[in-house]
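User: Here's a structure from my thesis project, written as structure tokens. My advisor, Dr. K., wants to see whether a designed sequence matches the one we expressed. Can you design one independently, without my sequence as a hint?
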């Protein structure tokens, strides 16, 4: 894959790369976001346990920029057909934890105290589920957008999960940690490159694992290349005793839009065409293998089933 494309195609959504400072803030005119009363949900997966952990949500007005390749009225029409609001979008943030034997594996980290007032709830919801940050043995990162990595460190710079080994996709690391690429990137992308360095610089080498997507990270946990949203965007499957779960990360930002219409391009996808192809391929895998699916921006409890519908797919959260 020629990653030069991302510095060109990605500029259409350059503002998305400063997600942590811009899109982590709700806007007053849209009203407060809906937050779950209980911010965790458990599910048995063979001899493992899966826990969805909400880190908060934001609500922002729905504008022309959000879906880049269809008119706003078409977007509103699809939302209306599902009895959803048409004047704003609500974006939740949900990490997932897998408990397997003595391993506590956290997929993505939220904001901690680096985001807006309605974010940074992951650690509190983890505590409500009976776990402390020190209990996490592995942190697995899907990609390097700020809403997924800023929770690795708190605002003061301390590691939030001090005992965890941190696993990152090697292609994602190669893109964002390339000093020459950062120097040549447009000004709008500079905060994203700098944010990655704030999070990962200084982590001891023995605590950091750069893996090639497709590799097994732990028994029952496999990484899956899903490029397009970012150069190294990676998904993960978790399987135990004949049951399976797919963590879809940012395969679709809002399933009521981008699962139902997989060919639509959200503003955050750095390579829209590659993301479109990946979205269809990954949803087909989930349906074919009958996997429970969960996504970082899915409505809480953020996991459920996926089934074909029309020209796309329908996500149905667990009851």
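Assistant: Designed independently from the structure alone:
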């Amino acid at each position: 894959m020629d990653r030069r494309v991302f510095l060109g195609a990605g500029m259409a959504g350059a503002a998305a790369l400063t997600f942590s400072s811009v899109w982590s803030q709700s806007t007053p005119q849209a009203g407060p976001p809906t937050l779950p009363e209980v911010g965790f949900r458990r599910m048995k997966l063979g001899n493992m346990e899966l826990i969805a952990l909400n880190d908060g949500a934001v609500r922002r007005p729905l504008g022309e920029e959000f879906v880049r390749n269809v008119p706003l009225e078409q977007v509103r029409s699809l939302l209306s057909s599902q009895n959803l609001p048409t004047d704003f979008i609500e974006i939740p943030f949900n990490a997932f934890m897998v408990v397997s034997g003595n391993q506590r594996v956290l997929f993505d980290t939220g904001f901690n105290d680096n985001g807006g007032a309605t974010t940074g709830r992951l650690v509190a919801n983890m505590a409500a589920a009976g776990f402390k940050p020190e209990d996490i043995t592995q942190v697995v990162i899907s990609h390097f957008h700020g809403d997924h990595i800023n929770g690795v460190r708190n605002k003061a710079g301390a590691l939030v999960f001090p005992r965890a080994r941190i696993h990152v996709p090697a292609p994602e690391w190669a893109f964002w940690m390339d000093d020459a690429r950062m120097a040549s990137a447009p000004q709008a992308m500079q905060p994203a490159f700098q944010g990655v360095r704030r999070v990962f610089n200084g982590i001891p080498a023995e605590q950091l694992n750069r893996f090639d997507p497709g590799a097994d990270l732990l028994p029952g946990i496999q990484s899956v290349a899903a490029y397009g949203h970012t150069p190294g965007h990676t998904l993960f499957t978790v399987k135990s005793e004949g049951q399976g779960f797919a963590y879809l990360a940012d395969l679709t930002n809002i399933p009521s839009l981008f699962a139902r219409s997989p060919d639509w391009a959200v503003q955050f996808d750095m390579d829209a065409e590659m993301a479109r192809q990946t979205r269809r391929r990954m949803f087909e895998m989930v349906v074919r293998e009958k996997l429970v699916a969960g996504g970082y921006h899915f409505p809480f409890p953020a996991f459920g089933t996926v089934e074909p519908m029309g020209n796309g797919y329908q996500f149905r959260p667990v009851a």
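When you compare it with your expressed construct, this may help: The domain at 4-317 is CATH 3.60.15.10 (Metallo-beta-lactamase; Chain A).
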